[in-house]
Fold these 2 entries.
Entry 1:
Amino acid sequence: MESLVEHLQRFSELLAVSRTTHVSTWDPATVRRALQWARYLRHVHRRFGRHVRIRRALERRLQNQWGQEGASGSAPVPGLTNFQALGRGDLLLSLRLLENRALGDPDYHYLLRQLFPGPGVPDPDEEALQGSLARLARCRSAVQLLRFSGPGEKSALEDPVLKTQAELLLGRLREVPKAEAEGPSRFLSTLWDRLPQNNFLKVLAAALLLPPSSPRPQGEELEPGTPQTPGDGAQELVRWLLEKSDVLAAFCRSLPVGLLTSVAGRHPALCRAYLGLLTDWGRRLHYDLPKGTWVGAEPQHVSWEELYGRFQSLCRAPPPLKDEVLTALEACKAQDGDLQVPGVSIWTDLLLALGSGS
Amino acid sequence: MAQDSVGFSSDYQFWMQKLSVWDQASTLETQQDTCLHLPRFQEFLRQMYEVLKEMDSNTIIERFPTIGQLLAKTCWNPFILAFDESQKILIWCLCCLINKEPQNSEESKLNSWTRGLLSNILSAFRFDTKEVGLFTQGLEFTPADYYPGLLKNMVLSLVSELREYHLNGFNTQRRIVPEKIRLLSRICIPLVTLPDIEPLVEALLTYHGHEPQEVLWPEFFDAVNEAFLLKKISLPESAVVCLWLRHLPSLEKATLHLFEKLISSGRNFLRRIECFLKDSLLPEAACHPAIFRVVDETFRYALLETNGAPEVIAAIQVFTGCFVEALEKKNKQLKFTFKTYFPYGSPSLVMVLLQHPKEIPQELWHQPLKHISEMLREIVEDQTHRSYGGPFECWFLFIHFGGWADIAAEQLVMSEAEPPEALLWLLAFSYSPRDRSLQRAQTMAEVKAVLIRLKKLLGSPSLSAEDLQAAAAESRDRDPRPPLCQQLIRRLLLNFLLWTPRAHVIAREVLTLMAPTDELTHEMTGFLDQTLYRWDHLRMEATGPRKLARELLAELRPAGSAV
């Protein structure tokens, strides 16, 4: 067991190095060793796939590593995240090395010989790796071909690019060590800090809108012992959003209105938070008598038009969302004195506008 | 060797030109042309690899100075990369270009350039936007995680676009344009054997628009059919039926493919034929009369060409059996009258033939038999009213349900009464449809005589092989029996052996006395196999006869031939 763990350690280090310029110091023998270790781990994966105890022990080790690397800040995700990854270690390593320009020519040459031995390979492992890489190339060209057929659906509900990113995100979220309750939150915060935020917000929305039983990413089988509730990932996202008010504000402000309505329809907690934000924004507006409209004190405040647009979208949604929104508006109007006169309470005016419009 | 290299050089020039014209295959013409040439180009790539792997990088550049261009153009043509194994062979070729130890800047540049190409095909992330790249890499995902997932989602999105139109008809806002569907069918041609694309192929096949002409590309049907026949794609039955209904050449190819399988596997036992048939999905598809007619015509043609070969007859019977089974399963969905399937037969005759003996108690089997015989006889002997074709059409229809003739033969042997004329006629007709009335009458008389002699033997205390053989033999003072008549008599003798418990001990002796040639042995094994198959399907007990039949079959069959 100890030697197994040691191998795991060494290989993880190798993986980390394989992306850096450090590989320029390697020689073909190093590449051979690396591939051999990868092969060994694949063998371990196959052999101990059903041994729950050994698997758990190895997973625990990997999760510890996650904690360490995450703390050191080097990468939000370690190279090997779970037991499943052991079966794909060689693929992972190969792709990193192939992409690394710092790898010397003799090493690269040796690597190619190993990965692509040619037709009629007697070794099933080598054939499997060659086949996987060829299939990847074929898959990429398939994506390119399908793009020929035109843009197709671009709404976040169905945009394949957003949907894929959302599935990947949920996949990683599932792997974050659950040992500490804060694990997933911290992970998401790290991502928020590091990744382009606009895109991240869109992916979050797409993830929140994925169908409840989200399909598992490529190559993963159902593992006994892992929590099966499919809504888990989405719940983590909701929890995190509710914790981080700045992210929530950006989320509600910058995403398309229709998209937000869909999200609110799916997640009651977010719906309440959204409504809360909307009421806050609404309260910041005051009535400008000469102009005859509601205006904000500062330019970055949400405008009347925007506010109205958002409420209109929410009211077009099917009940119970529509009803909840109207109830909230009525409550706000009641707080302001329940007057029917326009220009006194923004909520009255909104309801009036919605009443005639919708 | 020299000739090979000359041939290869001219091929090289040819493909270089083609690739230049195709460029990135972004127009209709280039896409069409590329798809037509995909298998041949893959062959060329294979040959090229064989040539390249023997040389080192410098020699390759010397020998083929434009190889870089050729390989690069191949890389940029997604249709080529998407096809079958072309991407794998291309990668092998590129690997040959890598120099282990580049000596000068030119060699280094070549290496760098080749590595760039390989990276493009395999390991690089290529995205529409930089943010997507940063996101995916930030989460430590590789192309091997991203692209398969993206492909699956793109396929799902396209499938739902196709289905939406299908469900909503005209009024849907997001109506998919015919041009897009045509384009999709073209794009799928190199991809049909990729499992991830299967849902899209299925959706395209089952898509029914409102355009008057076929909107899918014909080469698409060809590619799907080919992949299906070679078992490189698995499609649900509904999709395959759509394929065959929309593209007749595919159906014809599928039927011929089945025939080739039936012929080439040598001596086929009926169980195996049934497997082939069920595997091919043709019996299920034949529930559509249009498909049934095409397959039936092919059977008819084969029958005529082989002059009524028993193997073809057996195949027709098994096919019809599978077809009827499939029809029963679909009972609630399809409602075509039987006339649509058998236009050449009288509807009432078809109804009687379609009855399953299983549903009639064994003691009453003589009733439908008599009925069939009378109906057939009426049609065949009625020279004036050719409303249902001639004797051949009648016979062709009858042999679809040939189990009845076998039952007639058994009945004749098993019953103690005098052989009924109706059954005799039926048997004579089924074995020798072309006979004139006189010949047929003679055959019937011969058979009757043999049966009477055989039954008389049952009365005697001892039963010897010679006695049996004598009973079945031709009488010296008459004309020799025509071969088909002789065959019928042999059949009856074997039946007699199976159904007479006393005769079991001498069965082998009798067979030896018949002095079977290879052809005769073949005939007898065919008969025994057919009988066992029929008993299984009718769920007949018949323990004694079954045991004997199995033993005889095992002995007659040459060692090592397949069941």
Entry 2:
Amino acid sequence: MEEARVQRSFPVKPKLKSKARTPKQTAESKYWSSFKTQQIPDLISVPSLTFSPTAPHSFAAAHSASLTLFSAQTLAPTATISSFSDAVSCASFRSDALLLAASDLSGLVQVFDAKSRTPLRRLRSHTRPCRFVHFPRLDKLHLISAADDALVKLWDVAEETPVAEFLGHKDYVRCGDSSPVNSDVFITGSYDHVVKLWDARVGDSKSSLQLNHAAPVEDVVFLPAGGMVATAGGNSVKLWDLIGGGKLVYSMESHNKTVTSICVGRVGRDFGEESNQFRIMSVGLDGYLKVFDYGALKVTHSMRFPAPLLSVGYSPDCSTRVIGTSNGVIYASKRRVKEIEKEKVSESSLFWRVAPLEHTEKKVLRPSHFRYFRRGQGEKPSEGDYLVMRPKRVKLAEHDKLLNKFRHGEALVSVLESKNPGNVLAVMEELVARRKLLKCVSNLDVEKLELLLAFLHRYCTTPRYSRLLMGLTKKVLEMRADDIRGSQALKNHVRNLKRSVEEEIRVQMSLQEIQGIISPLLKIAGR
Amino acid sequence: MISGGQNYVSSAPVFSNDAKRLLVCTGSTVSVFSTATGSRVSSLEGHSGPVTALVVVPDSSTLLSFCWTASVDGTIRHWDFSVPECVKIIDLHFPVFSMVVPSLLSPREENDAKTRPDVFAYVSVQNPNAEANCLSPRCGQIRKCNLTNFHAVSSLILKETERPESLTISPSGKFLGIKDKRKLHIWKVPKVDSDSAVSKKITLHHSKTITVLALHPMERIVAAGDVTGRILIWRGFGAQKFMHSGGLVNGRSTNDEEDKPGVRENDDAESCSTWHWHPSGVRLLSFSSDGAYLYSGGKEGVLVLWQLDTGKKNFLPRIGSPLLYFVDSPDPSLSSISCADNQIHILKMPSMEIIRSISGIKANICEGLCSRAAFDYTSGLVAVQTENYGIQFYSLFANRGLYEVQVCERNHQPVDEVTVVVSLVELSVDGSMMGTVEVKLPEDGVGGLVCLKFWDLDDNKRFSVSTLIYEPHRDAHISAIAFNPTRRMAVSLSYGGDFKIWVCKEEIKQKGQMLQNSGWMCHAVGSYKNKAMRAAAFSADGSVLAVAADNVITLWDPNNNVLVAVVGETLMPITSLGFAGKSYYLVSVCHGSKPQLSVWSMSRLAAFWSYKIQIEAVSFTIDFSYFAVLALLPESNEYAFKGDGIILLFNVTNPTPMASWSVTKAKGGGLAFLKGYPSEQLQSLLAYINGDREYVIFHPHSKEAFELSRIRQDDHVLEETGQFGYTSIYGELPKFDPKRNLTSSISSAASERPWETIFSGSSHMLPPLTKLCSEFLESLLEKKTPTVE
């Protein structure tokens, strides 16, 4: 048995547009592109960017011989420290963000008060340019630095003296990181392709672990759990398992040029599958920022900037991302946070406080209030309720109503006035199917004809519509030649039409030229 | 052997007395459908010619289920359709084209049971002598015959017409009428009918050819529709002739024109009014059972409901096909309309909603533009293009329509000329993929469009669009689609001289639950010397694609799009191509002035054997090296074979046919091998569908008269529990039974020891003595238990 046929009336529909085979954006890549980027120009190559670990997470950018502090909220510079004798290479905040250490190419490491920006200590021991300085995350008293003299030093900040020296690297040491779980463990990466894991408690400057990256190591970072490290060098970012004895887990090789900097960032969102997961962000000289999901071992987002990128930073509250380039522009991006999310954040940060008492007393609605008359209308049906559905009304556009009444000419005019070329084409095709299009054209009065000619001028060379419109244009010009001659406005339209046709012909000619060049090549390739 | 696909709309259907059954004339049988489910319940088989008239014997108790049928084979039969069996056969020796039985309709008198009058039928027959006698072209005759005691058709001829006209009877059974070109003839049925009783006749005139008429159930009102779409209503017809007993014979002389507004030529009617809404000829007219409304319909597929007094209209639009018959049922909430596209819709009445459809295979549309129907090998379905831009799926085994899909979303107006057409439909071997092509014809060279659509089966086994491709071969029309039997791959060919191979990328599972279908993509494009391509076929393992480029066959590797070989040359362009099962033979068919059926050997790349016959359709088995062709016979041979076509079954290795069957109406027919329906039947069945879309399925290899037990998969009909009529609105009435009412109103407390309790209680509650007496006496008697010896 066939079920009862539903009586339907089909409105005219524009042709479908082809869809992209892959969805344009995954949820995560939507997240990463929700950062709104703005440029901070007029600097000279930014080799280092570092975020303050405490709110409001201002960040410091090293550029030429000065260090500038920026506010993460407004992305405006708040202060500049310029008591350097050479170019600043690296900066680091202490875990409580009260101190700021910076190294320069003269080999001097200076420690500043982060608020007043007065230099408190000058740590001079490196003889070559110092490229790495870092406050351990769990230790407020010490400082790690490394320099091009292949030495790694652990400083007692208060006394301005190196507590320990770690020998072992055979080339420039340019990067390092401290363990997030142990105050004594840190790693450094060097241009001798080797990453070494040091333990401050072991005095004889012997590394506890050694990883071979197989390229000069540009950056190295501990993953948040502390058991793995990611190293960047050459075109690749490599993941290592420290607990498993330094085993290579994965090598991500989607950059085309040297990866200069990596950092760990969190997807700061409360919904979706990937919320609050950590990602590795890497930037390279090829101008790409890649976001790497080290759980799924795949690149989840990729973004291009118009300059070689040197450094990347991501604020711990997930709202700001900064990228430094070699041509002195910082691409600082802030995520647009919705009000609701902000509220949630503020509430969760105040969780220990006593929440304000909720209104326990419910107001009784009275007929004096408008809401009295709308009470209950927004109720959602519960599970067991039987829903009486009203049949959905098909909303018909004006031209559809006119077509249903067989008023073809009016339908054509109405859709021409609506300025949606897809709909105009759909109506025209329907009129063709009813054998009424040419009759409609011949019956249009001069004003409406102007409308039609304007439409034809605009769209007749568009490839999607040209098949029908080219033929129609020719017919219109043949049929309405007398009217066009009589009116100046129509003549103008025809002139415009002529121009666009000529241009189209020019385009076609040049395309044919290109085709002529390519086709012999293809023939040869096909052989 | 299974046959089916009959025409359901050759004549008007009839409801049974309880409105639970609908009797439909289907060729030489009458099918009984259930109105609650819309499926076939039984069929009355026995006539040897098409059944033309059907009269259900009315009965107030709705229990009886008798009907009379009349057929072109010259017999009238009386059936009990609930059993179903034939009760009585009357042989008239005249082909009957229409029959009405007035005496069944008129209310019977009280003394009916004793002196039951003979039942007379009025039949419209074709005079067999008229054919031989060329001088008198009037071969249609209206005659009477006595159904109760039949001897011969009454010699009294009421009227002679050019062709046998259909008789119309008023629901009261008092009048009957026919149309005859621009005239209406109406007879009054005599009170006591006999073979010789002459009925009184009046004639009403009109200026246009009348197409249909209807008589009012109570009053003397007749409505007629003409070819221009006008509806004429004569009120008070026969006021002089029928009412006054015989006195005023010449009504022409007495009355003035002013007294009878609108009546022509001083006809015997009080007034005539005209309504005009239909743009083309009126096809159906019917009064509602209470006589307050008139239904009309025509080619434009809109049922119009006229209020008879005021002329106000109500519409049921978008039925989508010309309307033919409107039938009321005894149940006021049901009625049916028959449409020209072989569908009977059952309407829920006051709201005029279509609640159910009984659908036959829709008829062929426009020969030139459409290819023939596609068959589904595995499930035994046929997919036919319909006029309203859809595809109808019809189960050949179950003989019923399954569903329809809309290919082109456009409102269909049956009146318009054909400008949009679904020109091609093709199913894959496993029936999981479908390709359709729709063509929008250009208007004066402006705006034609060809669309290719690929469809996939969705979860509830219906096709849904997967991919839509606009103008796949630029503006050239698509000539054929073929599916690869092993992969999700298809090829489309164009007359413009190129073919495209399409590949469906497998569905990508994303994030566990979200299915993302990436659809069909063009995989390769090929052409051979810019020759128009008309046919293509994949080999059984899907590794070779054969494409007919004009009159040569090119063989391609579909995966790498490499031309492998070119085979032979025929005289005419090849229009059909196929690999015979899993063998290395290719069969090609050419049409035109030099038709040819050729078999090519793939191993030698040369012709193997060929015939010069006109081939209408060809079908290949999937597993064996057999193929069947439907050949059209030249006209000179038609008498020798008793048909205009012949089905030949070949083995590819042997040019002599293994079997042959001659068939009729082969033009526009189709042929297909189907998988044997119950899986134990290993060999496949052959289905033949003729030009009128009637089909037969048989076993091609059984030598004996092919008798396949008819497979009924779901013929047991769920007995409908729905109520109808009064009960459907107000619920079941308590049975009114005067006797029971008397007794049950009195509460008689007959307990174990009635002599103690009988007289307890107030006196007005006491049962009558007549009731108590027997019980009282009985209780006094000593009960003897019967002893078993």
